[in-house]
Each structure stands twice: as C-alpha cells, then as structure tokens.
Design brief:
By secondary structure, the chain is of the alpha/beta class. Helix content is 37%, strand content 15%. The strands form two sheets. It has a five-stranded parallel sheet. The chain has a four-stranded parallel sheet with strand order 2-1-3-4, with helices on both faces. The chain binds N-carbamoyl-L-aspartate.
Length: 315
C-alpha cells in the first residue's frame, strides 16, 4: 500500500515489507542527511493530551529537519478541552490548520477515531489529513515500535533468529503491545517477564500463537537474561492502574543492575522506550550493552522517514 496520506494508527496495519521500507528511508536520511526543502510550507499538528518528551520532541525535530512547521499543545490544560470540547470537534478544527496530525491521547482507540474523522472529512471533498498515533491509552504506540525494530536491526544486524525479552508492565504498556504484534512478523523467540497480573493481554498472545512464535511467560528476569539478545525493559504504567494499592504491590519489582548484566551475553542489548523510573539502575548506563539513549535518538530518523513518506511522497 502507498504511504502517501496514510494514517499510522496500528502497527498491525503494516506488513513487514512496508516496515522495512520505512527503515530503508530512515537509514538513507541518516547517511545522506535530511532534505530541508522536502516539506517546505507544510504544517504538522502535534496534539499531546498526555505527557511526552521523546515522542513530541523527536516528531518536532523530524518535521523541522524536513522543512515543515509544527503547531502543538502539550496537555489538555490550556485548550478548549477544559471547556468540554470533544475530540471530534478538536480534530475537525485542527484538520483545517495542518497537513498531518500526530495525536497522543489517554483513551484506547482515540487515534483510530481521529483518523476516521479526517477520512469522513475527505469524503466530503476536503483534503485528507493523515493521523499518526503517538500512543493511545494502553493500546498501541506504532511509531515507537518502528524505532524499536530499527534499533534492534541497527544493534544486532537482524531480527529473525533473536531471543527478545520484554520485561515489566506488559498489560498496560502500549509499546509492548505494538512491539509484540510486529515481532509476530519475524521468526524470533519472545520471553515475557511480568507479574501474573501484568502479563501480556490474551489478544496479543493468541496472535503470537497463530504466527507460530515461540513465546514463554516468566516471573523473573533471571530466568531469561542468559539467552536474551534484546532485553526490553519497561516502566510500570502507574497512571493506568485503577487502584493505587495495586500499583504499590508491583512497583520496583524489576530492576536491572550491574549484577543482573553479569549473566547477560556480551552481545545483548538493553533497550527501554523511556522514561525509566527505577527499572534500570543509573550505573548501568555506562555498560556497553546499554542502548536506550541511542534508541531514543532513533526517533528522529524514523519519524522523519514516516513524515517524508506520508506527506512528501517518498517511497
Ligand atoms: C512510552 C509511552 O508513552 O508509551 N514512552 C515513549 O513514547 N517513549 C513509554 C512509557 O511511557 O512508559
């Protein structure tokens, strides 16, 4: 499928070939530099209803490096949402101001809804404003997954054949859902480390089963650290817990220290979508296997590639 004017809502909307196409464009940009005229005169709206550092700033940096301008808000405070404006009305309005909309929202499905709104608008003769999901509730975070896969490829040279362990809040962690769905398109082994009440949702597990992925569930990092090629740590998603007591029971459960890494392969790479709370002790940052800041850096080429493909017709 063409990328031009395409919504980026779920990683499940993309084939492996399409993802690899994005990686190739990103790689080209890293190698040859960004074409600062490609999106001249275009405007990208960044609607962030939830906190963000990396996603918002890397989208903004990516847009700037291609010559596009950004308009944005960060937090619904200060917007008409506080007066009771619906998401529909905000999207209908912003679609008049921008050529693409990046949205992060606390509700699962908000990005799909926003994409439907701009599609309906296009059916009435307006131009289609593509919607990019910057994280919707506990559902998905597809652009994070693209940069995660790009990072795995960059650090290991392949994805097929690897053992990838995901650790932490697999229930509420949207980055893990999107990553697991994407890994289902490769032939890797998956290890899921979480307390029972925070294990991967069953819809993800059945998908991985249907793809014939060897996937096992574990309670402790020690059970998987020796075989992992990628250890993907995540934060316990405090804000998604319906009950603070439940959060308190699991906080601080997983922590990677220098000692943990003693059992890891020298070629293992430690990843984390960030922000970290206490899952990775700071003295691990200097270990050659720590890759999370490099991973965060990959947000710019990946998001620039996506903007170039969705708005600039690059393929
Ligand atoms: C993640 C998110 O927002 O889901 N952050 C990010 O975009 N890198 C991870 C998290 O908040 O834990």
């Amino acid at each position: 499928m063409e990328f031009l004017n395409r919504d980026i809502v779920s990683i499940r909307d993309f084939s492996r070939e399409e993802l690899e196409n994005v990686f190739a464009v990103a790689r080209g940009m890293e190698k040859n530099g960004y074409d600062a005229t490609l999106l001249n005169g275009r405007r990208i709206a960044l609607l962030f209803y939830e906190p963000s550092t990396r996603t918002r700033l890397s989208f903004q940096a990516a847009a700037q490096s291609l010559g596009a301008a950004t308009i944005w808000f960060a937090g619904a405070e200060g917007t008409s949402v506080m007066k009771g404006e619906t998401l529909k009305d905000t999207i209908e309005t912003v679609a008049n101001y921008a050529d693409a909309i990046v949205i992060r929202h606390p509700y699962d499905g908000a990005a799909r809804w926003a994409a439907e709104i701009t599609t309906r608008r296009a059916a009435k003769g307006e131009k289609k404003v593509p919607v990019i999901n910057g994280g919707d509730g506990r559902n998905e975070h597809p652009t994070q997954t693209m940069l995660d896969l790009y990072t795995i490829l960059q650090s290991q040279g392949r994805i097929d054949g690897l053992t990838i362990a995901m650790v932490g809040d697999l229930k509420y962690g949207r980055t893990c859902h999107s990553l697991a769905y994407a890994l289902g398109m490769y032939s890797c082994r998956i290890r899921l480390v979480a307390p029972e009440q925070l294990q991967m949702p069953s819809h993800v597990l059945s998908y991985l089963g249907s793809r014939g992925i060897e996937c096992t569930q574990h309670a402790a990092i020690e059970e998987v650290i020796g075989e992992a090629d990628i250890l993907y740590m995540t934060r316990i998603q405090r804000e998604r817990f319906p009950d603070e007591n439940e959060y308190n029971r699991v906080r601080g459960l997983y922590r990677v220290t220098r000692k943990t890494l003693q059992s890891a392969k020298p070629t293992m790479r430690l990843m984390h979508p960030l922000p970290r709370v206490d899952e990775i002790s700071v003295d691990v940052d200097d270990d050659a296997r720590s890759y999370y800041f490099k991973q965060a850096g990959n947000g710019v080429p990946i998001r620039a590639a996506l903007l170039a493909m969705v708005l600039g017709g690059i393929s």
